[in-house]
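Dear U.,

Please find below the material for section 3 of the report. The protein was modelled together with pyridoxal-5'-phosphate; I have listed the sequence and SMILES used, followed by the predicted complex structure.
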Amino acid sequence: VTRFVTDAPTPALLVDRAAVERNTRRMSERMSALGVRLRPHVKTHKCVEAARIQIRGCFGGITVSTLAEARGFAAAGFGDITYAVPVAPQRLAEVMAIGAGIERLAVVVDHVVTVRAIEEAAAAHGVTRAGLAQARLRPPPGRGRSRWALEWPWRRALARSPQVDFRGVLTHAGQSYRARSRDEALAAAREERAVTLAFVERLAEAGIAVPEVSVGSTPTMTAAEDLEGITEIRPGNYLLFDAFQAAIGSCSLEDCAVTVLASVLGRYRDHLVIDAGALALSKDEGPRHVDPDAGFGCVLSADRSVVYPDLRVSSLSQEHGIVISRTGELPGELDVGDKLRVVANHSCLTAALHARFLVEEAGAVVEVWTPVRGW
Ligand SMILES: Cc1ncc(COP(=O)(O)O)c(C=O)c1O
């Protein structure tokens, strides 16, 4: 590992520690002001060190998106984990094994087949109700979701199952990523709360208690003004942010903690070739609804002191990217052998492509984080 980040072999994933700390502080202040607890999603980085920063001042629970993350974070001492993707019935034995070693592993269930599979797995493993992974119910996306509570009798089966300890409902407002501004994200946050609470009310009418009401995406949780009735929020991307979040108004470009350091391999009349391709940046489409020319990321100077507003990563091959200028003029200082940084569209996908993260403070590498990869 080099002493200075700009000396690192490229492409390299860099994490700005000061931005991570700032983003943590802001979300934690929002959590307190909104009167909810924060169970941050760690899929954005999958790094134990980052999660330890993220849970500062929180109750300590985290959200994961793979069983590999659940296993890795449990081994690192995280005792309260929600696995927030509907669980595959054939992986329930692993869920039981991970859950047995920690205080609580909650799983998401949205089909009666899974409820029955949980009951069978619990019986097969001699797990009692008290020891079983707790289940959450996830309303499907779209409008009119609250009707589901009564139309789908399996929800009662879930809530009344002798083996399943029904804890509550969980949703993620993925539609908030279609917002074009903070105001539209706020509208998505209001809808997320309203739909979830209407759903909770229908369950309550059917005699099903809902102790935990968990919502949250980064766009809605950076915009929300009122979360009364909600007990928990689960944003994750806010820790690192990215070019997409900056484009829809969740953050500024300076708040983006993850950048990919790349070298210029070629300079031509109207474009540069860099050594960061789809396997260093990811091909996430980005905020095309806000900027049809968003391409695959924004370009900064290697030391981050300059933002090039007219430069865009316009296309990606496996191992190289093409940078063009909206004005047709390329900056003179970016020539073959020079370095630059890319703020990619989607930090979660970009980070997942890298086996190590170089953590920087004032330009120096201060730590190396290793994510929990795989499934
Ligand atoms: C179920 C669930 N909860 C929370 C999150 C975190 O949301 P965000 O990435 O918007 O911060 C996600 C992200 O996809 C998710 O799928």
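For the text of the report, you could mention the following: Confidence is low (pLDDT under 50) at residues 130-140, 142-151.

Regards,
Y.
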